[in-house]
Amino acid sequence: MTVFNTLLEAVAHCDNFPYVLDPKKEDDEMHRAIPFLLGAHTIGHVLPSVLVALKDYNQTTPVFTISDSSVQFSETVQTSQERTLAVKALMDSWRQNKTFDVLAGWRDELYPVYGDENEPDNIAFVMERASAALFGVSTFGVHLNAYIRNDQGEIFMWVARRALTKPTWPGLLDNCVAGGISYNYSVKETIVKECEEEASIPSHLASQARSVSLITYYTCSPGALQPETEYLFDLELPQDFKPIPRDGEAECFYLWPLQKVKETILNNEWKPNCALAAIDFFMRHSFITPDDEPEYIDISYRLHRRLEFPTPRKGLNR
């Protein structure tokens, strides 16, 4: 496992999709990803390995228009409902045929994909959570940094250990609470729900969580692309309150000083995107500052990558 020399290296480990694509790098399929278009918008990216399977499916079920430079829905698939049904049929087929390993983690949980201003909240269609990475569509989630202050005013952070049964990143460290924002859930509803489900934090405490920031990054792993926006919340818990695992997502919780949190991040013991949420906390609470962190500005830039994809438009057409 790679050990990081700096926090910037930890951020870059997560935000690892190339900023400039170079098609000449034929041995790296990240550089040969093509845009998934909806009208004038790029709503995702498709890797060559996924494109092969998509072309094969499209021969018998022609719901996409595919060229060497882009993928988009065909003229027969124009509404949000039609797009949703077309993508569902595709993913059901791939899941049944075990075309991609990522679909083994099927959640029966829908994520919205944005980019249609004629639809409420700019939602173009919805798709199964586990399949989002195959189309490289932008997803959204929440992360909670829960902490206490001791009698001397020092901050200690609650850190989760992911369950060993998790299909992704088992046993690594995590923020106290985190989760994706499912279709028809608001940001605040999601954080309150996840607090209770994952850490047994009751709603009267969870509702006190403060929306403080967000981070954006673009992660690439073998066969999967994941541009993400994570809404960040801080929750100062009473000193005598202890999070307790409830739904099996977390193995246990630790209460650590921030120096210990930093050491474990540099040791690459964290789920990559969760490390970013903790680093953002370091900056906002002056655990690292421009005077003591040489790469402070670069870290900030990488925590807030500009993503090209459409975003939620709350209240649109309502």
Automatic annotation (TrEMBL):
GO molecular function, one term: 8-oxo-dGDP phosphatase activity
A Pfam family matched in the record: DUF4743
Gene3D superfamilies: Nucleoside Triphosphate Pyrophosphohydrolase
Domain Nudix hydrolase: 139-280
Domain of life (superkingdom): Eukaryota
CDD domains named among the record's database cross-references: NUDIX_Tnr3_like (cd03676)
Name of the protein: Nudix hydrolase domain-containing protein
Gene source species: Mucor saturninus
Organism phylogeny: Eukaryota, Fungi, Fungi incertae sedis, Mucoromycota, Mucoromycotina
